[in-house]
Predict the 3D structure of the following.
Amino acid sequence: MIPKINTPGSRTIGLLAYLYGPGKHEEHTDPHLVASFDALSPDPGRDTSATLKDLQLLLDQPVQALARHQRPRRHVWHCSVRAAPDDRTLTDDEWANVARRLVAATGIDPGGGDAGCRWAAVRHADDHIHIIATLVREDGRRPDDYRSGKRAQAECRLIETDLGLTRLNAGDGTAARRPTTAERHKADRTNRERTAREELRETVRRAVAGAENETEFFDRLTRSGLLIRRRAAPSGDLLGYTVALPEDRNQHGEPVFYSGSKLAPDLSLPRIRKRFTATSLGSRSGADHEDRSDLRRVHSPSSARRAAAEAAWSAVLVIDRGEDGIVAGQLAAASEILDALLTTSAAHTRRELREAAATFERASRSHIRAEHHHTRALRRAARDLVHGGPALGRGEDGATTAMAIDMLFFLALATANWHAQRHHAQQAAAARQAADHLRAAYQNAAGPPLGALYQRGRRLARPLRERQAAAVRGAVPHLAERVLAEPGWYALAATLTDAQQAGHQPTALLTEATRRRELDSAESISDVLVWRIRRLANLPANATTATATGTPLPSTARRATKAPNQQKGHRRTR
């Protein structure tokens, strides 16, 4: 249940006309009173003898009783209360109970013998009501409505429990603004899947992802086709920006512009600048020597995805152990990687990646101030994804996409745990939801490369598979039986064989792949180990192509990809 308290207004009759009217888009049906401060209040919706003026005069009577100079200029309090999309349809009596509890909780009409304000609750749709009140009590004093929004949220959590409704998480004021009802109806009328606000938010976030400076940011916005207005000070310094979709027009035919801060709190120009100034992706300084591996320009989609997986792995370790400000910065930069991966990935993963990016965006913001100075590797990885260009959904591109998504899945889980420990309920829920979408995207991306590895593992000689099984038992005895029983074991056996032929010790790689992070949350431990080992050993993700550095596939891996009658022990028939 979602309460929304609007800025106080000055005309009671104007708000009543809207509540009892057809709505801006004929969306209001059967407007009627469900509750009020007085059971005998006139209801212009159901009583043909009652008028809006009658109800307005009744509500405004305490205001008019004051001397003119004592009357508050903005005296109209307005709260809408909406049920969650999956909730059942409440009865009028249930909505009346909701209204009474909310006016009591917010101090509008506290009850218990205390003087209250006059109020009325109007229902004109199945899923919500509007409560209108005048902000002068019966004794002429102003109500104690301090922090009424927080109080309404807290009461709605109790109402959800009492009525068996969807339990929502309390907000903390850091979420992006929701589209208004008018914006949703406009999207429906124009046959758009999403509102203009949502499309603009996604486009601006993509433009920020891995951008080096303001010039590149605005160039990306221009190339995306948005209309842009820059707001400058008299000195010429840029203060802010607004953007609009060319086809989104108001009733006068003018573009509807949104400022960055109206799209999301972290998309204002000052907040975006902090990312640019803190990371300086285009320069190298003595303080950056430890990040030299992240400064290599990446020119292919597959190598960019490897770099993203590596950066995400490092970020997981920071989230587990880092200071709060540093972790908050990591989450903001990780959101850039998701945006960049979305824009450059193949169609079969794009839908789930879009949902993952949209939900993780909520998890990337909290009241903890983000420190961006330690996000260079993540932002560089996002930049490389953008400049690496679109990836194919097959071959090394497809396999490294699965590798990157796999690591981002664990990053989302780590994010959910971090937020949960700090009681950031909305952010934790968003991170878990992003993890679900990443799991689905991974399943779409990982099928072909893991299937090929599975077939190679099945064709390995039994003594060789047994040696790899012994390595698993020696490195991770507590996980060994579970790993060996998974279907993905054959893909892991093939990967360990490739690594051994490339000069690595399977036991050491397994130990390294499992020691830094738990694996209990993985649906398939063997799948996770495949990607970690192929990344640690710098093996081709697709197992049938050269590595990003040009190293040929190990000889055993090449032999394993041949047809069975061409392998050792089989003679070709003439």
